[in-house]
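Methods — Computational structure assignment.
A single polypeptide chain was analysed. Its primary sequence is given first, followed by the predicted tertiary structure written as structure tokens.
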Amino acid sequence: MKKRIYKNLLALTLACSVALSTAPVSSFARDVAAVSESEATTEAPKEKATEVEKKTEVSKDATTVTEKTEAVEEKAEVQEEVKAEAEWSDTLQKKADCAKEYILNVIKAMGIEDTEIEVTKLENGALFEIKSEEFEKLIGKKGDILDSLQYLASLVCNRIDREYFRISTDCNGFRARRKTQLEELARKIANNVKRSGRSSALEPMNPYERRIIHSALQSDPYVTTHSEGEEPYRKVVITLKR
């Protein structure tokens, strides 16, 4: 009985010694872990805040650059408009009025009513945008009526003096649509020339439309363009570069 009590007391003493020796170490480890976790928790928001500040600064810089670019472009556009306005003399105004009146009279003689003409000032010239429900009659085949009105109006208004006044006519946005068609045609014919290796001539065109073809292919590294023939049968030829 005494031996069993003695053994129990010895075991209890040893357990207490182990507990007392390890308790400070475990407490210290817990304290260190708690401090590390606190520092990590504190540093994480700081890092996020720094990243947000950097992104904000970059965004502000980009916005500032964009605003400055837009301001420069707007200023250039305004200067061009002011320049055009300043260069529009009384003589040019008379020529514009003369051309507009002539075009309206021709359209009326064609039996087309309810027609309006919007005049846009250009440098040393003007664009006459014709608006009518019977626009097909005014445009003609591939714009030949518009071209005729443009040519005749130019002859009439430029009789006032020797200073050339450039006339451009359009009807219900036809010129923009025609330009797109010609650019697509130029690229299509150029691809055919690349595949076959043989030159290809387009149908006869007026100078304005030929310039569109030349411009559409001027940056193509594989083909070149030139015009052949006499007016009104002059046409663009697309050939493979050598």
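Note: Confidence is low (pLDDT under 50) at residues 1-33.
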